Amino acid sequence: MGHRSYLYLTSKDEEKVDLFEANNSLPFFWLTLIDNKTFNDKVKEWEASINYELNHTEEAVEKYFETHSLNIQIPIEDFKRNSSQGTLFVAKFYPETIDLYKEFLVIIERNFKNNQKLEIDIFQLSAFEETLNEFTKPIIDTIKNIEELKLENVTFLNTDDLIATGTGFISIFFKENSASPLYQEAIRNRKKTVVEDKKRDVYNKQELFIVIIILIICPVFTYVTFVGFKKDGFSFSVILIGIFNILFYMFSLGGIKSQIKGYKELKKNK
Predict the structure, then answer these.
(1) Per-domain boundaries in the chain
(2) CB-based burial label for 152 (10 Å; 0-12, 13-18, 19+)
(3) What pLDDT does residue 195 have?
């Protein structure tokens, strides 16, 4: 199960313009477009939204989110200021990526209208962490380092994969031709090891909860199989239930093993 993140342009009067997206990752170039005040303000809104959702009915929550967005909104003036600082940071610490970074900015700028805001939708990714603070702290630290031109604890960018961890993937809904030369070169240069890394075990507490529930239910079907065998012997229904019971055991135990490996990998990379 994956969690997606999106970068797009919005306005009150026009449809949103999808630009970039990512799966199970937060592209570093996106973070260069956010200043610390904007992000900290959004974290407070996230905390308020979580508390509201815990203490209100589903209907009330739906109405709440009609007027409260989880997305980070960036007006064009902030985009220009933050991207200028981002350019300084990338040029200083990742000079080999500066041309791709500038191309990334051009794609946004040439579609940015004065009545629009840039929106970054990353809240889904918080599901990978036990708490909201675990999700937001590395982002706050990274944005602070960008603003102060320091290279400390910047873990979001992997230069072996400048698409998943740099620009993000150009959206399939993006109307313009995505064949910008540096972007296409970065696509081609994605290393095999990084592509294979997408198949790694990814920790997801919701998925872990599901496989644990399945494992808890399995003994019930084991008992049903046993009772059926005592009564009817190796009947078709008994054999069928028994086979499914074994498959559910395998699925749940394999899922738990995968989640444990994913959790260990997550902690190791922090």
Answers:
(1) 4-190, 205-268
(2) exposed
(3) 47
Question: Which residues in the chain show pLDDT less than 50?
Answer: 193, 195-196
* Residue with the two structure tokens 């990714």: 125
If you search the block for the tokens 């320091």, which residue do you land on? Answer: 150
What type of residue sits at position 81? R
Both tokens of 167, joined, read 């620009």
Distances (CA, A) of 226 to 29, 162, 201, 247: 58, 55, 34, 16
Give pairs for 87-96: CB < 8 Å, separation 24+: 88/149, 89/32, 89/145, 89/146, 89/149, 90/29, 90/32, 92/149, 93/151, 93/154, 94/157, 94/159, 96/159
Q: Which residues neighbour 239 within 8 Å (Cβ) at sequence distance 6 or greater? A: none
Ramachandran region of residue 8, left (φ > 0), alpha (ψ -120 to 50) or beta? beta
Instruction: Classify 61 in phi/psi space as left (phi over 0), alpha (psi -120 to 50) or beta.
Output: alpha
Sheet holding 169-170, edge to edge: 72-75, 117-121, 4-10, 17-23, 169-170
What is the value of pTM for the model shown?
0.70
